[in-house]
Amino acid sequence: MNNNNNTTKKKKAKHLSFKERVTIEIYLREDNTISQIARKLERSYNCIKNELKRGTVEQIKQGKKVEKYYADVGQRVYENRRKRCGRKRKALECAEFISYVENEFKSTKKGIDGIIGAAKISGKYEAHEMISTKTMYNYIDLGISEIKNIDLLLKLRRKTKSKKVRENKKVLGRSIEERDKSIETREEFGHWEIDLVIGKKEKEDPVLITLLERKTRAGVNLLAANRDSETIYNAIIDYASQVGDDFSRIFRSITADNGSEFAKLASLEKDKGTLIYFSHPYSAFERGSNERYNGLLRRFIPKGKSLKDYSSKAIKRIQDWCNDLPRKILGYLTPEQAIRNELLNIV
Fold first, then answer.
1. Could you say which of 11, 236, 317, 345 has the lowest number of CB atoms within 10 Å?
2. How far out from the chain centre does Cα 90 lie?
């Protein structure tokens, strides 16, 4: 037979208050048992039992040791434990790895995620010795790391922009709208984006032609004497002759903006068999990979600085640095490693 008078409602998922602790102390003085206190406070038996352990202290009375519960002791122990609860930061136990990331960042200027990702696949550190990219950025925001937000150039520059395609009034060739979907998905190697990096805004100042392969994110830098369309085209033709007969297999397509400097680029289809596409005006996001690459170059070639100050060797060193950055999207391979793997299937 069920005893309906013995169904006590219990408060769940709620910590004891100081008022309840004082009540427990009073009930104990009245010689109530744990079960009785639990029923009166609508708490579980274990809740009261654990509280008594928490707030009981040992005292000496008339030369004998006695144990007694005090509400203020229970409250103090509870508050101290609450301060220490929760997941602890890994900054101390992973201090060596954090120092490694900081030193790599300062010496190479590579991205935080690239450094951590490369360390992960290299097996240099055990998993429990490392922190994630997100945690490292949290430490930077909190000021725990020696790296500061001002050191993270992209983080300071990044803005949210609306992506609005404008009507293409200037027709230099085939529109990006005609580009095959396989190029969009980056599944196939050999599809490139092209742009110019300009130093001084002077007509006869040298410019840098940047080519970026969409799948591997590998970049190529070509110096041109000026931004005239004939000069730009000849620089690309010269580079094509260096690549040799495999140019059309390595450069299956190139997507450019519709600036006047690329007015002759469509001729590359006839001369080399490379498909040429032109993006919409004011739509840099349609060549986002190339824009990202140019952003890396700007660390070394600031706006307003003449490219006459850079030798071909210096430009090559900058290109090598960009292509040696481990990329998360490539499984932390570098673009150089990724493009070499692709070229093995071609050359």
1. 345
2. 19
